[in-house]
Design goal:
heterodimer, A: 113 residues, mainly beta, 4-stranded antiparallel beta sheet, 11 strands, globular, B: 113 residues, 6-stranded mixed beta sheet
């Protein structure tokens, strides 16, 4: 079974703090993703990475950066957290053969005060 | 405008009854459509995937249909159980941009005793 883990299930941070969200997958997948999920908006792609040190902006990258130093780990960084970044953050990795299947982590619920 | 629209936004059904969720999309060129189930506080889990040539796929009490001509899909839940209470998300991918999957906002299903 593919396992995608996220470092925290719940986080509370203050405005202006630097926040690190970590995601680890154990299936040697090349492609990993960070989404945020807000009520009524569904999942929106922040960044994705298709290989170590390779990244591409998604639909809403502003205010976020990412790091992929090792294949199994994909980190999302909020350089200076703001209240509008309060959300559920979901990490996923993608199996590409056979077929395309995304596997999601349990999510991190972030509250920025 | 979101390229994947789901309806209804939410629904409440009695345990044992059937229900059908709808997904309309405009994503093109179409590659595949997937239905995910997301339990509260957890990451989405894949239920079914269908490609252009498939018009129905079952997974236990879940049956998905696809009409690629009208760009519509449905997810039918048979003999609902309390454990079916969840959000159901329709995800469509295009052949030329697998990295940017298009997510619907989800349908929240509540099954009551």
């Amino acid at each position: 079974d593919v396992k995608v883990t996220q470092s925290s299930r719940y986080l509370v941070k203050r405005t202006g703090e630097k926040v690190f969200l970590e995601c680890v997958q154990d299936m040697d997948h090349e492609n990993m993703f960070w989404y945020r999920q807000d009520p009524g908006l569904g999942l929106r792609l922040i960044y994705f990475s298709y290989d170590v040190k390779m990244k591409e902006k998604g639909d809403i990258p502003e205010g976020y950066s990412v790091s992929r130093e090792k294949k199994e780990r994909f980190s999302l960084i909020l350089e200076s957290a703001s209240t509008n970044q309060t959300s559920m953050y979901l990490c996923a990795s993608l199996k590409t053969s056979p077929g395309f299947t995304q596997y999601f982590g349990p999510g991190t619920r972030l509250l920025v005060l | 405008k979101n390229q994947v629209e789901q309806s209804p936004q939410s629904l409440i059904i009695l345990e044992g009854k059937n229900c059908t969720l709808q997904c309309n999309y405009t994503v093109s060129p179409f590659s595949n459509l997937r239905w995910y189930k997301q339990d509260t506080g957890r990451g989405p889990v894949s239920l079914t995937i269908m490609t252009f040539s498939e018009n129905t796929k079952s997974n236990g009490r879940y049956t998905a249909t696809l009409d690629a001509d009208t760009k519509q899909s449905s997810l039918h839940i048979t003999a609902s159980q309390l454990s079916d209470s969840a959000s159901y998300i329709c995800v469509v991918s295009a052949t030329d941009s697998w990295g940017k999957l298009q997510f619907g906002a989800g349908t929240q299903v509540v099954v009551t005793p």
